[in-house]
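User: Hey, quick favor. My workstation is busy. Could you predict this chain's structure for me?
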Amino acid sequence: MKELKDDVFYSPTQFADLRGCSVPTAQEIFNSKDFPSESFGKEKVALGSAIREWYRKKRVKGENNEN
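Assistant: No problem, here it is.
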């Protein structure tokens, strides 16, 4: 299994490979308002540590909604 590295910028294609989803799904995630992506030239990228933090907050938020 591939590992998300905190100090690496990931493109939607690389993210899809890491997450095991399709590239269109990854692009949807990268275009979400709350996802920490930024434009780099013509492509969006996201820093590994920011992706990890986004997942952590998403998981905590989901836990709070269930209570």
